[in-house]
């Protein structure tokens, strides 16, 4: 059985083999450049249709030329209305020649393993930085009891205010008692004056 692949480009799928030439929608690559096409299916001895195995499939093609498709004529017509429209269209195409279809080996994944230890080394310094910050956290904890002492001072000031209020309240009844004592004396004096006036 011949080795072939199904590739996708421009929203369309094409069945390709080694040396196949095909017309696809215009690609941005210049003439003579190599283009890697996205495989959808690969068949050799076994069929590969998805998963990690499909990522290993490699389909390369060379851009042979850029050209335009045949002219398509468009004619619109509505009877008894005098409506007639003519238009034409030519698709922009690229001609590709498939140069390679292969299933890559698993050795290609080795560079990824080398990148992982480098990532671990970068993570190690990050782990050290929080350790350096721990003494600073202890200093903050030492500062917190000092902040708690400030409310204690406020508590001390509250009893002092209460004592002052008690003294003021104790003074008020004394002044009232003095005023009460003064009032009867003045009333007795006024009564004595009235009696003396009546007697004279």
Please summarize what this structure is.
The protein is built from two helices and nine strands; from the N terminus they run βββββαββββα.
Summing up helix and strand content along with how strands pair, one would put the structural category as alpha+beta
**Unreliable stretches covering 5 or more consecutive residues:** 106-111, 152-156
Helix content: 40-55%
Radius of gyration: 51 Å
The helix-strand sequence is EEEEEHEEEEH
Please indicate the percent range of residues in DSSP E strands (runs of 2 or more). Answer: 25-35%
Overall average pLDDT: 74
Q: What overall form do the CA principal axes indicate? A: elongated
Strand segment tally:
9
Largest sheet: 7 strands, antiparallel
Distance between the termini: 157 Å
Alpha plus pi helix count: 2
Structural summary, described in words:
There is one protein chain. With 200 residues, the chain is of the alpha+beta class. The N and C termini lie far apart (157 Å). It contains two helices and nine strands, in the order E-E-E-E-E-H-E-E-E-E-H. Strands 1, 2, 3, 4, 5, 6 and 9 form a seven-stranded antiparallel beta sheet that branches. It has a two-stranded antiparallel sheet with strand order 7-8. It has helices spanning 52-55, 110-199, and strands spanning 4-9, 12-16, 21-25, 34-43, 47-48, 57-68, 72-78, 83-89, 92-103. A hairpin with a 4-residue loop joins strand 7 (72-78) and strand 8 (83-89). The chain has a domain at 4-104.
């Amino acid at each position: 059985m011949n080795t072939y692949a199904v590739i996708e480009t421009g929203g369309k799928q094409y069945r390709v083999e080694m040396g196949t030439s095909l017309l696809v929608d215009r690609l941005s690559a210049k003439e003579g450049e190599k283009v890697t096409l996205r495989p959808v299916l690969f068949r050799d001895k076994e069929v590969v249709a998805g998963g990690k195995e499909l990522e290993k499939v490699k389909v390369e093609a060379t851009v042979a030329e850029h050209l335009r498709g045949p002219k398509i004529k468009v004619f619109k017509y509505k009877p008894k209305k005098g409506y007639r429209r003519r238009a034409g269209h030519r698709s922009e195409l690229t001609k590709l020649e498939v140069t390679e279809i292969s299933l890559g080996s698993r050795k290609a994944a080795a560079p990824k393993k080398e990148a992982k230890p480098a990532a671990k080394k970068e993570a190690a310094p990050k782990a050290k930085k929080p350790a350096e910050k721990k003494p600073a956290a202890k200093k903050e904890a030492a500062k917190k009891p000092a902040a708690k002492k400030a409310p204690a001072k406020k508590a001390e000031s509250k009893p002092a205010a209460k004592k002052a209020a008690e003294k003021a309240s104790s003074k008020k009844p004394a002044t009232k008692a003095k005023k009460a004592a003064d009032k009867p004396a003045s009333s007795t004096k006024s009564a004595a004056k009235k009696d003396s006036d009546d007697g004279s």
